[in-house]
Amino acid sequence: MHVPLISVDGNYIDGTLTNYETIGYTSVLFYASWCPFSLRFRHTFEALSFMFPQIEHVLVEQSSTLPNVLSKYGIHSFPSVLLVNSTSRVRYHGPKDILSLVRFYSRITGLKPIPYYSDRDLVTIESVGKPVIQRQHIEDEPLLIFSFVFICLRLAIYKLPHLLHHLNNLCRSYIPHLNLEIFGETRQLIGRILHMLDIRRAWAKLRLYKTKNFHKGARNARVWASSLASVSLGESSSSRST
């Protein structure tokens, strides 16, 4: 006889596990409604409740549980499965596929799934109904969409500086080669023009021209000064003879 899944809050499960006196086992799934992996895993957990009707299966949502209760039972990530009896509490640490969980149940409790399923049957059971359940939860849980978008934005903000840094290095490595290819012919043309003009020779001619003009100006100045002196002496001698 199949016992349906039971949803409880953190206070209830804490009181139950603290004073656990039930004969048999209880499997507790701690999940978060905003976590896509938790929503997917609920289908697997429900399948386990059909295969192990001797085990009570309980659901505990993260928002209804205080952090100290989660820490008390070692729940630091979602989804997490805790298998409890009157003498022990065992938290599952393996893969979240149904085949691994069936082996975990059988190893801890000594029970076998009812009815018996082969490994291929278990894989088929796990895959059936997943798309429908995921789509239904997305429609019923709009916060899941916002959570997914928020996670994507956080990843984008974290990765964007690294991406821009690599893009900057890529541009620096390719742009100099690109400039040489684009302006190579222009630089060759400028080099030919400078070679034809021969700036050094033109500058030497200009300096020589300035030097010649300077010497010529100096000679003209001496001639003009001597002429002026001769005129002055002539005027002085004329005034004396008078």
TrEMBL record:
<protein>
    <submittedName>
        <fullName>5'-adenylylsulfate reductase-like 5 isoform X2</fullName>
    </submittedName>
</protein>
<dbReference type="InterPro" id="IPR044794">
    <property type="entry name" value="APRL5/7"/>
</dbReference>
<feature type="domain" description="Thioredoxin">
    <location>
        <begin position="1"/>
        <end position="110"/>
    </location>
</feature>
<dbReference type="InterPro" id="IPR013766">
    <property type="entry name" value="Thioredoxin_domain"/>
</dbReference>
<dbReference type="InterPro" id="IPR036249">
    <property type="entry name" value="Thioredoxin-like_sf"/>
</dbReference>
